[in-house]
């Protein structure tokens, strides 16, 4: 999300300045272009931040001036347009899974210094970075940017928010770790074995929603470092229903469900409304499914079924069940048995 609040660590600006030093180029013009004073580079307190817009302006200018979209991280430059080439190679894919596989494979043609891989384990898809060289002082910004770019491009391709179940980094928690909550929509862990993120594998099956015209417009600028905060999550309805089916009683409140989804309660309600649904409707659907299943398959008492599907007493359950089926639970069980 673009914001005028200075929340982006000055450490990322210093990393870009290191790229200028690596190539023997004066960074003064780039810093002026982004509205960043050279004195800010030496700050170390809580105010050692710039805005997201300033960092994007600085990085875009630097990529062009240095002719290196990798900003000095890799052993050879990635000329301007390199990541645009990856976008073009991926945009014709039938779904996000194929697009990300192509992105990872073709990224290996740009550099041998890192290897990106996409794997699926159970219900989760994992995007991982294998570091093959040391990046020194540029390591944090390199890994952060690579992950943000992949996540941002993936979200852009399917025109949907992709919530992250986990984000990992193989370095110690930095002093500015609070900024990571703004950069990654999911829990972040430090000191891991590798950099990467995990998300619901169902997103891999979603078709791409972008065409060449949209790609041309997007590539007028540097590949975005800021993950677009898409209003719509195209799988939220499915994710909510799956969670309710698995843990109806534990996740029966909006606060518990929002916490499990790593979103705010307000965001949860807004997204469900965008999909033409509500939390109450989804809870009723799942309760009805489970109640009917228990009445048909088990010999549990009506009271036990009521408690199992989240009702506090048999009376309220019977009233709701009659609204769903025009039958009482006892009459329904007798009729279908």
How is the secondary structure organized here?
Blueprint: E1 6-9, H1 10-22, H2 28-34, E2 49-51, H3 52-66, H4 82-90, H5 96-110, E3 114-121, E4 124-131, H6 139-158, E5 166-169, H7 180-183, E6 188-190, E7 195-200, H8 212-218, H9 236-246, H10 254-261, H11 265-274, H12 279-297, H13 302-308, H14 314-325, H15 329-336
What does this structure look like?
The protein is an alpha+beta fold and 337 residues long. The protein folds into two domains: 6-218, no CATH class; 236-336, Arc Repressor Mutant, subunit A, CATH 1.10.10. Helices cover 49% and strands 11% of the residues. The chain is built from 15 helices and seven strands. The protein has helices spanning 10-22, 28-34, 52-66, 82-90, 96-110, 139-158, 180-183, 212-218, 236-246, 254-261, 265-274, 279-297, 302-308, 314-325, 329-336; strands spanning 6-9, 49-51, 114-121, 124-131, 166-169, 188-190, 195-200. The strands form two sheets. The chain has a five-stranded mixed β-sheet with strand order 3-4-7-5-6. A two-stranded antiparallel sheet has the order 1-2. A hairpin with a 2-residue loop joins β3 (114-121) and β4. α4 packs antiparallel against α5. The termini are far apart. The model is unreliable at 225-229 (pLDDT under 50).
